[in-house]
Amino acid sequence: MNTENQVEKLNRLEFLKKLGLNGASLMAVYCGVTMSSCKNEDNTAATPTGKTVTYDMSTSTFATLLNKGGFYVDSTNSIVVANTSDNGYVAVTLVCTHEGQRQIKYATNKFMCSAHGATFDNRGNALTVASRALTTYKVTQTGNVLTVTL
Ligand code: FES
Description:
With 150 residues, this protein is α+β, with helices and mostly antiparallel strands. It has helices spanning 3-18, 23-36; strands at residues 52-56, 71-74, 79-84, 88-93, 104-107, 110-113, 119-120, 126-128, 136-142, 145-149.
């Protein structure tokens, strides 16, 4: 358990106490919340399909990818593509490994999930909240066109 999780759980406990819960009712609610927060980890790994998706960065839709830190969320194909500071173009699944929410984004030099705050480095490795890495996809660049192979 990391420090961030410990702080979150302490805050939950204090919150429940302020609601007036005590004794057995407090523990029942508190344990129910904390135990459920970790047991739903998504263990489904994406299966490679060989399908390719292209992003032409000379179009306004994908131009944000030309800048370091820029990213594009492709909800149709469940991909997030980012122009990372230290690993070039990286494509990861939109689906978080924590509880399977489709809320992965890129910000401040890392991938993150807005559902419960999981963070992942520029190679998709889990940093906080989630314990498993994001599925990553091969990205190739030809001129201004990125091709992601699923
Ligand atoms: S689903 Fe929980 S942090 Fe992403």
